[in-house]
Amino acid sequence: MCISEFSKCELIALASTISIALSKEFTVEELSILSGFFSAIGDNLTILSS
Hints:
Elements: H1 8-25, H2 28-49
């Protein structure tokens, strides 16, 4: 299954589920680092898709 086959609601649910799972496994400091890392990935993907 490709990511483009997911509905908007399914993508939101997937992102929420992953976020909750990660929050149970990492410290606040580690979550802060991951947050910045994933933001950088998102920013780079946006630039590359332009």
